[in-house]
Design brief:
By secondary structure, this protein is α/β, with parallel strands linked by helices. The chain contains twelve helices and 15 strands. It is globular and about 65 Å long. The structure holds threonylcarbamoyladenylate (TXA) and magnesium ion. The site of magnesium ion has 3 residues, from loops.
Length: about 375
């Protein structure tokens, strides 16, 4: 039984498909203030009626998420064209330049994996934003969730559909592993195309823009669109980091086994790896796996000290590495290794930067 959640909350979790009837069932549940797990192009989300404080409170309870970690509002697709008239964004607190920046970004990148943090109005309950004066918004790009948002015509608050601090789910099976028995419905939208959470930026209002979380949308793409340089919130200890992106303070994406990031490749760290009992390995590519084998002096990995391994992407290709990352971490973790070693991706821009960010977080515990 899951710890921390009382027995009476154990319920049957129904998997819904993309039919109008099933989406109608999901929409009805959301209208009643119930929780539904939804597919997005990034990861699965745990959705509730976003402007209803009581419904949103259930998200925190079911995820065991601390109340200081604010949620993203997922907006109906049609809201992109009249975003400023929807009563969520405090236009007085946003300069004209800030408004132009929001318009430029939403026109170019919505629906898609970009979340924008802007000043909020009182229409957004404090519980949704953890008391912050800002709200995070995005229009997700998954056909079923776009349709669902069209049906309900209200914003859905949705964090990733995992228990707090754990690996984000990228398939229905992952959601069941995380929240099965705790929620009534999951909409099955297949495997998430991107596999990593959205890029989060904050429009400060004085013309500057901050990157709060790296993702598929690159910093350079935002800089190019806006013609300003985008600062990245430095290390988690940076002053003000907690205030501007509370989620960054937490250890996230953590498997149960300790994760150790190898700076470089496994073949250069043989002694470290062999010193561990039951190590598992997440290789960057077939090439690094081959050089590991060569350095180990064994013919096959079965003969090595590794108890389990995965290759993020045979060709070391960034997009498929991102898509595979969370699933492979879950698979390795399920074999209960003593430690999981992971090779960081090559390069440090865009999605590779995001993969490194998630691996570094997973290694901090
Ligand atoms: O791709 C995604 O963004 C997924 C899917 C479901 O849309 N959602 C997701 O939500 O990753 P969550 O709750 O796991 O992460 C949201 C992040 C957190 O780090 C949170 O601190 C930050 O966004 N955030 C939310 N509201 C904020 C705000 N007002 N100011 C600063 N950061 C905020
Ligand atoms: Mg999350």
């Amino acid at each position: 039984m899951h710890s921390g959640v009382p027995d009476e909350t154990v319920m049957t979790t129904t998997i819904l498909n993309g039919s109008e009837e099933d989406l109608g069932t999901a929409a009805d549940a959301l209208r009643r203030g119930e929780l539904v797990a939804i597919p997005t192009e990034t990861v699965y989300g745990l959705a509730a009626k976003g402007l209803d404080g009581e419904a949103v409170a259930k998200i925190f309870e079911v995820k065991e998420r601390p109340l200081f970690d604010p949620l993203i509002l997922h907006l109906p697709p049609s809201w992109r064209s009249d975003l400023f008239d929807r009563g969520l964004i405090d236009l007085k607190a946003l300069s004209e330049q800030g408004r132009d920046q929001v318009t430029t970004l939403t026109r170019a990148l919505w629906p898609g994996p970009l979340t924008i943090v802007v000043p909020k109005t009182p229409a957004v309950p404090d519980i949704t934003t953890s008391g912050l004066p800002t709200v995070a918004v995005r229009i997700p790009n998954h056909p079923l969730t776009r349709r669902l948002l069209d049906m309900v015509e209200f914003p859905l608050a949705a964090p990733s559909a995992n228990r707090f601090g754990r690996i984000s789910p990228t398939s229905v099976d992952d959601v069941i592993e995380e929240l099965g028995g705790r929620i009534g419905w999951i909409v099955d939208g297949g495997t998430c195309e991107i596999g990593l959470e959205s890029t989060v930026v904050r429009i400060v209002g004085d013309g500057t823009v901050q990157l709060l979380r790296p993702g598929k949308v690159r910093r350079s793409e935002i800089e190019h669109l806006l013609g300003v340089s985008v600062g990245e919130l430095g290390g988690d200890r940076e002053e003000g980091a907690a205030e501007h992106s509370p989620g960054r303070l937490e250890t996230h994406y953590a498997p149960s086994s300790p994760l150790v990031l190898l700076e470089g490749v496994a073949s250069e760290a043989l002694e470290t790896i062999h010193a561990e009992s039951s190590p598992a390995m997440l290789f960057r590519s077939d090439a690094t796996m081959a050089s590991f084998l060569e350095s180990s002096g064994t013919e096959t990995l079965e003969e090595s000290s590794l108890v389990a391994w995965r290759v993020l992407s045979p060709a070391g290709e960034p997009a498929s590495s991102a898509r595979n990352l969370f699933r492979m971490l879950r698979e390795l973790d399920s074999m209960n290794p003593g430690v999981i070693f992971a090779e960081p991706p090559e390069g440090d821009a865009g999605i590779s930067h995001a993969i490194r960010d998630r691996l570094e977080r997973a290694s901090r515990r």
